Structure formats: structure tokens, C-alpha cells
Amino acid sequence: MNRIVTWISVNDRYAFQIINHKLRCKGLDLILPRVTHLGGATSTISSLLFIILLSESMFRLVAIKSLFSLALSHLFVHIIKKIYCRERPYVKLPDIQLGVHPLKDYSFPSGHTTAIFSIAVIFALHSFILAIILLPIAMLVGFSRMYLGLHYPTDCIIGALLGTISSFIVYLTPFF
Fold first, then answer.
1. Has keyword NADP (predicted)?
2. 78-107: average pLDDT
């Protein structure tokens, strides 16, 4: 088991270094600091409230389900961050390219990635067209978190998994 943890840790840092250093370009430097906020609390909550207030019945119901999925996923993230207490890459590793202001909370799992997946997957489960649009955006948000020096790849992978799990829990609950 210790070998597996060591292998994951080494490769996690290696993949992070590639994304944070070797993939740098002006286009991504311009786009990703903006895209990353799509997974933030302001963007996710306000977008869902906007859809709930202004849309027709089907999209309104999907947005309400997404709001429940977002809340559930946030609960998962909050508990795991308190238990795991993983320091962010820019605290642990030298020469990190920081694209945004440093954050004070823990790194694992990525809350932005979890949030965007908790919403995107619910919409994707209701519409193939929305899946084609929203899932790549969710992946781009996860990628942006690494590119901007805020998260390791495993933070974002587990965040995507948690967001997906919360979506399926809400989607499969007969209450809705």
C-alpha cells in the first residue's frame, strides 16, 4: 500500500509540474484565470439561481437538482478538506507559476472542480447536447486549477469524482 501511495504522490507532482510549467502559453494565461471562476461559489450559485428564476419548467427542475447536487458536493469537500489537510502545491513545491491570488484553505479536493462537475453532470444527465457543452467546460475548470498552481491533479480528479457522485445521488433520488 505504501508503494502505491508513493507512486501516486510522485506522479501527481510530476503531472502537476508538466501542467504548471511546460504547458504555459499566452493564450492559456489569458483564458484560464477567467475560466477557473466558473467553478467558484459566485458563478455556480448565481447561474443556478438565474436559471431557476427565469427558465421554463424542465430547466428549472434541472437547476434545482443541480443546486442540491452542489450543496451535497460542498459538504463532501468541506469534510474531506478538514480530514486530509493537504497543503497547496505553491506551499510545498518550488517555482510554482501562480495565476491567481493564493488561497488559504487546503488543496484536497478541488472545490471548484467538484462544484462545476456537480452541476455539469446533472445537466448532462438530462441532455446530451448540454453534456457535449458542459462536460468539456468542467474539465477545463479542473485543468485551470492545476495550470494556475492551486491544485495537484489528484485534487481535481477526486473533485470531479465527488461532483459526479453527488450528481448521481441527486439524480437517482426518487424525491425529485
1. no
2. 87
